[in-house]
Queue: 2 jobs
Job 1
Amino acid sequence: MADSDIAHLVREYVRGMPSLPTTVSKVLEVCNNPKTSPIDLDRVIQLDPVLMGRVLKLINSAYYSLGSQVTSLVRAIIMLGVNTVKNLALSSAVLDRVSSKKDFRALNMEGFWRHSLCVGVTAKLIAKQRGIEVKGLEEYFAAGLLHDIGKIPLNTALADEYVRTMSLADRERISLVTAERRGLGMDHSEAGAVVAETWKLTGAIADTVRWHHDLESYSGEYGDVLRTVAVANFFANREGIGFSGNRYPDRASPETYSLLGIEKTMLEDLEVPVNAEIEKAKVFLKLGG
Amino acid sequence: MLRVTIWGDRGSMPTPGPDTALFGGNTACIEVRCGERLIIIDAGSGIRPLGEKLMREDIKKGPISADLFITHTHWDHIMGFPMFTPIYVPGTKLHLRGPVSYEDDSLEKVIGTQLSYRYWPVRQDELAAKIEYEQIKETTIDLGDGIFVTTKYLNHPILCLGYRIEYEGRSFVTVYDTEPFRNVFPTDPADPSYDEYAASEGEEAARDENEKVLRFFSGADLLIHDTQYSAKEYLKNKVGFGHSSYEHAINACHKARVKHLVMFHHDPNRTDAELQELELFYQGKVRGKTSLEIEMAREGRSFTL
């Protein structure tokens, strides 16, 4: 398939891109419950990268024309009310019920979700330990949670090609992003940029999605978030928490650690709190396993 | 000249009967005249008598033409629409604007569904009037003839807009149905669902939103504000219902240098005697402490600005 066909397929797919079904039933349960607390709603949306992106997109769309960009769900819940945000999430989730586990062929959906959550949680914990103010922490979490969003269109719209790409990475012991460039002519950060553009995501989230495998080329203002997510991503892959198809991840460079002002050994201390956070999320979503 | 007349000031449900004859039992409807132009805010049951007046008086000068603004689509604010006689009269022109929460149905469908056989003997597409529906958000609309309408999202269980009408240097504002924005996230670290970020971001967001509402009605010549409850009633078990207390409205108006506050959206259980007593009580409370003038909304009361 020509590279231009691949790009076209990805764009077409992204236009109607579904949410991850793992959390859909939980979203339905939380949203259909009239006693849902704001914090439950905030959590269930945050835990699903696709849904969170879509809800933020709707909130910031011309539909509500709120004047200033709203990037936090907490603020959206206070401004628009629990009911409106519930309806936004419910509508997105219901629309997305058309998608199912069979869409996930090369990548396992649950493994992918767990990897995304691990990177989000780890990025947030690293930021917290580095003394980033509380208000800024959610940006690290969201950027980590959404960083691999570009894998969804590749995995679904180009399922056969993606299975072959992952085999290539395994066979040649190269990182998945390298295999994607070689096998597809488009890597998941480029596909992610299409998702970000379509959903009108901007700032740290969009830049992380696009540049998390290309730190050296990045010249924007969110380098700190980007580097934190890159370290968190390496940590998640090394620890084997979840699986995003990357058995041979590129290491974060020593420069990345020094720019963040952290030691590699800091990651050792993160294992316990990261696992605790993921356990909490698992209990919440009744994922089990 | 900007002239405002109240045709319905009751909240939730019409309350006819001897106990409500003085302050009125119709639900929300306000007539605003800017020179020759007619603006109507809300189509609660009060729009029925307004329609009758238009048919008696205005129709003599020619077909009725009006801009109708709906604050939100809860039933007490739209229930009078099927009984608004001008919609059955050929030549009537209505520009109906309002917000719709996130759902697939349009404003036309949400309001027009009342005009379907299961609820009403006349269907929407049988109406003689020319009605243009427009879904609106936070915006400023130039109505022409020097009239500007600015809108602001309020805090109610569905999307609800406040309206600020400016004409010939005068301003009239509606701020209902609403309650103060508040942090809905737990702030006590001992609470099992406490989240540090949500707690602090929630505080800041609520403060920002309340300030925006204050700015929205700042310096208004006349303000009609939701006051369904007393502060005691509100705090007892009405938080989150989307309605304000007298105390909140009075304090906010004083702070925003509003000149005249009309307390509106009376609770359906509130009798004339109780409203009279409350009016005297709050007037007494503020006397000598503020230049703000306050009164309870009364059906039929007009204000010339």
Job 2
Amino acid sequence: MAGAALPASDSLRIMRLALATKAPAAYARMKKLFFVVLATAACASATTHQATVSPSYTAADVQFVSGMIGHHAQAIQMAGWAPSHGASPSLRVLCERIVVAQNDEIAFAQRWLREHNEVVPPADPRGHVMPGMDHPMLMPGMLTPEQMAQLDAARGREFDRLFLKGMIQHHQGALTMVAQLLAAPGAAQDGPIFRFAADVNADQTSEIDRMNRMLDALTGSPQ
Amino acid sequence: MKSQSWFAIVALSIAACTTTTVNMSTTAPSPDPRVGLRAGWMDAAEAAWNIRLVSTTPPSPDFINRSTPGDFQFINSDMSFTGSYVIQGNFSGVQVWDIANPKAPRLHKAFVCPGSQSDVSVYRKLLFVSGEALNGRTDCGVQGVTDTVSHDRLRGIRIFDITDIANPRHITDVQTCRGSHTHTVVTSPSDTANVYIYVSGSAPVRSPNELAGCYGAPPDSNPNSALFRIEVIQVPLVHPEQARIISSPRIFNDLVQAPSHSEAPEDVAAAARAAAEARAHGGFTATIRGSEIVLGPRFVAFRLDSIVKARGGTGTPTAADTATLRANAQSIVDLIVNPPNRRPGPPPGPTQCHDITVYPAIGLAGGACGGYGLLLDIRDVANPKRIGAVADSNFSFWHSATFNNDGTKILFTDEWGGGLQPRCRVTDKPEWGADAIFTIAAATMTFQSYYKLPAPQTPNENCVAHNGTLIPIPGRDIMVQGWYQGGVSVFDWTDPAHPREIAFFDRGPMDSTKLVGAGSWSAYWYNGYIVSSEIARGLDIFELQPSGFISQNEIDAAKLVHFDYLNAQDQPKLVWPASFVVARAYLDQLSRSNGLAPEKLAAARTALARAEQLSGQARHDALAQLATQLKSDSQGGAPRALVTAVADLAEAAR
């Protein structure tokens, strides 16, 4: 990446290369960020109609992406219980999709953090693991250890019911995390982060709707 | 033997020129050449079948970062067409390409204006561009908007005057609460003074301090909620600067139960077996949402106990009690499943649409909205009404819709994972992240089948169903579709229960070690060519090749359909001019399907060729005679469309 030999016949391209090669170092530490933003803003106004400004990101972006890893890991653990806990066929389909979808999103989150030289937390279903802290932190909507134990002990129809209630709570927490991200100054300016947050928002909103209907059918139907 | 070797030489010589062999086989190549392609950005290995890459043009200098393959801020997005121009959206603006010479597209204008997704549409001299991301600015500046609330932020529709397409002139912006992820230009046959835009926004609602009236709370706590609705913008053609939102139809209201083939066929069968078995052994069953279910022992015991108590008795229920329960089981269940007072809370259903495809010629639109596919009546353009809805447990996120030309079928896509994820791996199910095909009869959509790119892709290739259009081959429903890094797939869905791939193009992944976003965002047929917007690699143009699936006559017939402009989500009615090649295309289809006896087919071909040599009245008479002949053959299977095509030709010869 650094020092790529490219024809630099026009000044715009030189400027772009300068920005692109500067980026990784600038990304390295959060406290430098303020200056980076200033620097890129200055470059941008100097070359008004040139598309390349390295997208900046904030502590809120990092928190969102890394927090989502533990958050998703718990969803995967919950969904992974479906086959062994006697879940109904329709719930098993939902769980299978949650496992695939959230595994891929964890991979995305870890890749993004790695590429930006940020700390990459492990996918721990107990919550967000931060360096130097003894206990993983529960992100919004995550089930408490007691709730998880209760779900793990349930079987069949009771598992379906507790799972749906728990996963609706869990997904609503993800929507809260998106809302918190978007409320943070300067956050989600980076394209992939905005896209990721918007996808989480759209997918989980429709999945909550689906789970509400499943829960309605479950509690409404006789057994 | 001789003719075969001659064919081989022709095939070889064509191969030498175009690197594609003419292959009349109807068997897909095996092993699939899309598997194991070498990775690379501009030098990835390619595989093609029944399609030829005419040109590939890298992004213009302002829309590429050569040091970062697949740089997210330069993602190429959707396309729109006008005249010989392709307008290609990009997360950093818009590029206008002149494709008058498809072998060498020429950059006409690179217009920097960041703000994803830059979904684009044209109508006459107007260009519409969607903005959704938080970094989009009203002044098209590249510095982003770091304040959480700012009047510099653009989320909605930008409107430009492209009278001089090399110099788009900004006219105005119409800001919306959730921005515009996609939009759909809608023309009204009865209102030629205005053009309309349906805005779909799937991102969160912004602050009312940034745009007055934007509330993200659900409608039960705020009746003005920006959720559960779409926006309709009216653009007066004489005064486009007066464009404004004129309605926000709540097309999701009361969307309670969409018909859904929710369970897998084997689960449905298992449930039916269980119910039958329970009934045979004296068990109780009831029907819920069309499926018979077994009433569990606790439910039965509790109800029987109630019946015993109701008659003032005690102890074990009698045979009469059991009979009473059996007679009333269904009504008891109905009362439980559909209680008179539903639970309070926000209305269920989607809060937004992802994209809407309108088909003004038939007055319908297909809405891909959250967990639903909707059918909308758009005859009153400003007030679309929902007339049908489907859900599908295999669908995650309804993304887009395409009608077949006669409006009897609709195809929805499921962009499971949002397009950033690899959903075509060997481990991904063929019905997930796929297309679902429905037939339409009187506003009822009936599921027929799924279509998914049949070639597995690597975990380093983002791949899922995405945008496409019909290929105007008369008499058939053929579609071309982009599948991100899954490439471009052409498939036949004339038989809605058995869609089948008939051509493809694919490249290896951007990177063999990690997922770098790229691939075909959309692949659209436009005036004889397939144009594909490649997220990271630029603009690809393809030409269909004749094969065992598509004859040269069918391709030539498709090329007769000319658009002055095209917005894929404003689906035009395909109409073919009277032409000999159209009639031959139909004859080729009859030949392929064995729909007409070979001697009758040969006679029709000869008669057609002879008529083409004639002119004036003689041609008319010959064709009229052929039409009559075909009509009498039609009991044997000649399609009415062929008879009509020949009759039209006869008319045209007068």
